Amino acid sequence: MSRNFNVWLSGFRDSIADYGYYIDFEKVHRNVDGIKVELNILNSLIGSKNIKEDFKALIKRYPETLKCVPLLLAVRANEIYCQDEKGGYLYRFDFGRYSPNSHKYYEDYSYFMEKTGLFDLLENHIINNLVDYATGVETGLDSNGRKNRGGHLMENLVESFIKKAGFIKDKTYFKEMYINQITAKWGIDLSAISNQGKMEKRFDFVIKTNSMVYGIETNFYGGGGSKLNETARSYKTLALETDTIDGFTFVWFTDGKGWTSARNNLEETFDVMNHIYNINDLENGIISEVFV
Q1: Whole-prediction pTM
Q2: pLDDT score of 236 more than 60
Q3: Distance of CA 63 to the CA centre of its chain
Q4: Could you tell me if 173 and 188 lie in one domain?
Q5: How far apart are CA 245 and CA 208, in angstroms?
Q6: Strands in the chain per DSSP E
Q7: How far lies 15's CA from each of 12, 25, 37, 126, 150, in Å?
Q8: What residue numbers bound the domain in which 244 lies?
Q9: Model confidence at 247, in pLDDT bands (50, 70, 90)?
Q10: Torsion 165-171-173-175 (CA) sign
């Protein structure tokens, strides 16, 4: 029975975000707890009337407190580079290595704190507690992880339906499996989709039944962009190539209102691909129908 693309597309979701998608507070608190002692030591600088000398004395006695500094600037790396407008050259500050008992060392890091505005932040009581401040910074940084978490949301959703259909991980279904692993395990020649072995394609899931091996891709696009057109074209090509391979079928689960902006390319793929499905299809039992 042929399907209507417009009806199928109209069922796409605005979002599949769960409650843990927005901020991973467990990770936030874990990261802050790892430097809580050092942050509390640095708290002694808040409101200092002689902050430059107090800072130098503090890092001389507690050099490990320097590892907190990048986070205070919302930076993940230990090494921070700064172009100095006076000297005209690039400074490298390494907050992961400590070289105490060096006058230049203390002066350089004091200079960094002053020029970045951290001394002003501490000296003028703009903040009251560095642990609370660091928690806020970590929360902001973790929001950048939504893209990665979002990428796994569709995978997790599809996997939940795979399990509900009775497939067992590492026995009848496998996660993140490469072409060469599929060939080695079941002896299927996939050179048609690997450019004669030159490209190492990885599928999000692979399902093995008595009669077929299924390579599965999953994604969800809540927003538009050029990547969607590229994805639709590449999966169209992949679908046509896998049609020539005995014992192997390519299946694509996708969804998201972002496809509205790339509907023409998606429709082209829909027209030539037998196994392209959305979340509605999953909820209506498509896995039990297809993977036999």
Answers
A1: 0.74
A2: yes
A3: 33
A4: yes
A5: 15
A6: 79-83, 90-94, 173-178, 202-208, 213-220, 248-255, 276-277
A7: 9, 21, 40, 38, 10
A8: 5-18+145-290
A9: very high
A10: positive
d(CA 100, CA 247): 66
Q: What is the pLDDT of residues 31-73, one digit of tens each?
A: 999 999 999 999 999 999 999 999 999 999 999 999 999 999 9
CA 87 to CA 289: how far, in whole Å?
70
Backbone angles phi, psi at 237, to 5 degrees: -60, -45
Token pair of 284 as six digits: 């209506």
CB 232 within 8 A of CB 264: no
The Cα–Cα gap between 82 and 42 comes to 23
CA–CA distance, 233 with 92 (Å, rounded to integer)? 44
Nearest residue to 62 via CA among 42, 89, 85, 90: 42
Nearest one of 246, 172, 159 to 209, comparing CA atoms: 172
Query: Are residues 215 and 251 in contact, defined by beta-carbon separation less than 8 angstroms?
Result: yes
Q: Quick check: 273 and 252 in contact, CB under 8 A?
A: yes
Mean pLDDT over all residues of the chain? Answer: 91
Is 139 in the same domain as 155? no
Q: What is the distance of C-alpha 68 from the center of its chain?
A: 24
- Cα 245 to Cα 35, 214, 273: the distances in Å are 55, 11, 14
Instruction: Examine the fold and report which residue of 112, 144, 176 is the final residue of a domain before the chain moves on.
Output: 144
Residue 153 and residue 281 in one domain? yes
For the segment 12-21, the average pLDDT, to the nearest whole number, is 90
Q: How confident is the model at residue 179 (pLDDT cuts 50, 70, 90)?
A: very high
195: confidence class by pLDDT, cuts 50, 70, 90: low
